[in-house]
Protein 1
Amino acid sequence: MAKINENYLKLPGSYLFSTIAKKVNEYTAKNPDKKIIRMGIGDVTRPLAKAVTDAMHDAVEDMGSYEGFHGYGPEQGYDFLRMLIVENDYKKRGIDIAIDEIFVSDGAKSDTGNITDIFAVDNTVAVCDPVYPVYVDTNAMAGRAGDFGKDGRWTNLIYMPCTEESGFLPALPSKHADLIYLCFPNNPTGMAATKEQLAVWVDYARRNGSVILFDSAYEAFIQDEDVPHSIYEIEGAKECAIEFRSFSKTAGFTGTRCAYTVVPKELKVGGVMLNGLWLRRQTTKFNGVPYIVQKGAAAVYSEQGQKEIKETISYYMNNAKIIREGLACAGLTVYGGVNAPYIWAKTPNGLGSWEFFDSLLEKAAVVTTPGAGFGPSGEGYIRLTAFSTLDATKEAVERIKKILY
Ligand SMILES: *Cc1c(COP(=O)(O)O)cnc(C)c1O
């Protein structure tokens, strides 16, 4: 008889966004005339840059011609894109990454999930709390998380609380961690880490033989000079860290799908090069990102492409500023929103995340995301995103101000 992977049965239902949708539907049914403003979505809303769509149109024409047709491409991505990544994302920052250390993929979500394939089941895993749920659930599926407890924590995961007291930065794990997931600038807290702060982790990983899985999906939103865009800006990181990047938030590719992962050749575990293992994994289980999409991603690095994506990011960061300043003005304690498109707001008067979520929905018709949905330490916070339109953002902030005054 066939047997299932029973780890899947241990997973709690993914209630966060379905519960939010249900509450919003109930509200709309009761208040058909109220205009809902969604500040909870983690998806971009502005269209692809023209430089990108122009390149994609050209690539479509290529595909329709004998001379320009592309069938299966290299699983690791076309060299034209990998070269641009090496030059622009690394060399320009003084980081030396080789082209065969870049693996182009269909998403940082897939990669951060799939990377667990190359690690043994008995590795200990440390995650931040609150956290992007993908890191937790994929380790649970692989049998690395133990059981899901009533306290909302997996028995075998090491949780690193990111709280107000610690500036929402994790402290070094209390127990030895083999694999450490870090995401800066962070989703959901919107907080960034400085070079000095990341250096502590690189040092820990090198001393303990740990591997850092560094999610840098929001690097393009960094505004402060002293915030590193890559973990490899820290000396020694190539020996202990894998980096995940994505065109999703950087250039509006959430629906187009293109990302990449960097596995340096210096990174060895038990003498084995992880670069080779990931290459084997990708070439076996993945057949590459479409030529048309990679041509679009390459155009992100063109002069015109850079100009356009910077305008879009400024637009979102202006929204972030409006939210941050507006909510602070209304008396809320707010974090993030400076180097990331997320604002992490403390609930007033010790309200629970869901209570404050309900109150903002009922009284202001504004949809947010309850912090508790990202882990136990997210309780007492809500996340707002800067991905709405300017008008909707202003309107939402005004409505929230009105109910809080
Ligand atoms: C949005 C996001 C990503 C990007 O995922 P893609 O699969 O590339 O769209 C990765 N990590 C975090 C934390 C995110 O919020």
Protein 2
Amino acid sequence: MIPMVNLKAQYVEIKDEVERGLAETIENCSFILGPNVAAFERETAEYLGVKHAIGVASGTDALHLALIAEGIGAGDEVITSAFTFIATAEAIKYVGAIPVFVDIDPKTFNICPDAIAAAITPNTRAIMPVHLFGQPADMARIVELCEQHNLKLIEDCCQSFGASINGKQTGSLGHASGYSFFPSKNLGAFGDGGLVVTNSDATAETIKQLRNHGSKVRYYHDIIGYNSRLDEMQAVILRAKLKRIDQYNTTRRHVAHLYSELMADLPLTTPHEDGVGIHVYHQYTLLSDRRDDIMTALQAKQIGCAVYYPVPLHQQNVFKEECAGIVLPVTEAVAATCFSLPICPFLTDEQIREIVGVIRGVLVALEPVQNLQ
Ligand SMILES: *Cc1c(COP(=O)(O)O)cnc(C)c1O
């Protein structure tokens, strides 16, 4: 059996450190916004090369609070991708704004800058790129569009912890960015967690207020806020994993490159690296017309596989009505043929060869058998 993500193997490696940290926290009873959250915020700000990092309860909250802090509200148009997890668009809806879905690049699956440019109207207030599957979006062009049109740039970095462009981390290029620490993410907690990062002092102050019931001083409330703090216990776990994140991401890249090398001769499309950003492979996602046959064969061998994402957001029931008439040909074509294979820092070369062997069996079985005589 090969799972999509082997969280158990990762736990075994950090067990002692995590258990010591958790025991200490329980002993100290410093459960809310304690020393580990503060230390994790300092450590991630340094790692990501940003002035401020503020721990929150989830990636969804990180994006939601970032939009509020950047002043995005009712009736504002926010341009984003339809080929992403629903939370990207949920955050936009929470503030009363309108998600404007545009098409993706057929190779990287990231939002297409030309499509963004074509969708800008006088009501556009922000662009929200997603660094999908761990590959940075085309930020040079997106930053330029934001500057030209005076738009806010909110990066959805929920899948891209550690991904960078010319030495700059994703999340450090926008006005405010959101990270998720959902357990299966590149940097994952043992539960939910999230982070907002920004270089703006004012945005950081607002996020700190918003996550803690709108107060700067306890029991004095200036705005309506939320209960959205990063949990102290989760911060203990995240600090242990942050120390190892570069090693985790390097191994993910090794896994991806070995997959691609072993499948180079097969009739399917392996992931494309744009050569500009460092892809940290949150997912290893391919395209094949025979996706269903391949997945059936993998499942029969108890090998994990999944479709991220089968239904683009503009075709989801929740958006069907407001997106009526919207056609995104590349997004729709990719959603119809994409599938993802197991990837995590603990997948062995042997397991990768086994997985590729199953896929090869499906794709090569149909080819005419030659030299029989
Ligand atoms: C995981 C994810 C989110 C939401 O993060 P949660 O921590 O689960 O709330 C948002 N956007 C993208 C692209 C994600 O992958």
